[in-house]
């Protein structure tokens, strides 16, 4: 793959402990923390600890253990904050990639948005 990982991106600095974060869950391979500019009452970012730029990069090159840990961590956060649709009011899960995805931070992250209606999927 042609991806080059920028180890100076803000999430790499969070993983190295150079920038503080509000962690909600940490596992062997993943970290979940609150977004600094929340768009909904619950806005949590979940990142793999490995150096992956975006989702396709991660799936193509991460180990099965990392992928399993990451996908389960996302679901566990949703359970922990009580937003799964079985008992809660649901959530939106999304990951922006590259230019047209309007990805700002070049380290894979999923947004968990919850606590209020997520609104239309694409506004413009
Ligand atoms: P995206 O546009 O999908 O790349 O989203 C990047 C998100 O990262 C955006 O919602 C704001 C958040 N963010 C940027 N810098 C920081 C930071 O230093 N700490 C935290 N917790 N979140 C950040």
SSE inventory with pairings:
Layout: H1 10-15, E1 23-26, E2 30-34, E3 42-48, H2 55-61, H3 64-80, E4 91-94, E5 110-114
Antiparallel strand pairs: 1-2, 2-3, 3-5, 4-5
The structure holds 2'-deoxyguanosine-5'-monophosphate (DGP).
Motif (Histidine triad motif): 107-111
Protein name: HIT domain-containing protein
Pfam family, one: HIT
How do you describe this structure in short?
By secondary structure, this protein is of the alpha+beta class. The protein has helices at residues 10-15, 55-61, 64-80; strands at residues 23-26, 30-34, 42-48, 91-94, 110-114. Helix content is 24%, strand content 20%.
The chain-level structural class is: alpha+beta
Biggest pleated-sheet summary: 5 strands, antiparallel
- Domain unit count: 1
CATH T-level topology: HIT family, subunit A
Poorly predicted parts: none
Small molecules bound = 2'-deoxyguanosine-5'-monophosphate
Give the C-level CATH assignment. Alpha Beta
In total, how many beta strands? 5
Name the CATH homologous superfamily.
Answer: HIT-like
Counting DSSP H or I runs of 4 or more residues, the number of helices is: 3
Helical fraction? 10-25%
Order of strands across the widest beta sheet? Answer: 1-2-3-5-4
**Gap between N and C termini, in Å?**
31 Å
Provide the CATH architecture: 2-Layer Sandwich
- SSE run: HEEEHHEE
**Using only CA atoms, what is the Rg?**
14 Å
Strand content: 15-25%
Average per-residue pLDDT, rounded, comes to: 97
Coarse shape? globular
């Amino acid at each position: 793959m042609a991806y080059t990982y920028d180890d100076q991106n803000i999430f790499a600095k969070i993983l190295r402990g150079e920038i503080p974060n509000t962690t909600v869950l940490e596992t062997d391979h993943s970290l979940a923390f609150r977004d600094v500019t929340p768009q909904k009452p619950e806005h949590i970012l979940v990142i793999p600890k490995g150096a992956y730029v975006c989702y396709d990069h991660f799936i193509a090159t991460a180990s099965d253990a990392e992928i399993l840990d990451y996908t389960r961590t996302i679901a566990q956060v949703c359970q922990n904050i009580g937003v799964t649709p079985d008992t809660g009011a649901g959530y939106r899960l999304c990951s922006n990639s590259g230019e047209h995805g309007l990805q700002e931070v070049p380290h894979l992250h999923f947004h968990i948005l919850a606590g209020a209606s997520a609104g239309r999927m694409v506004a413009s």
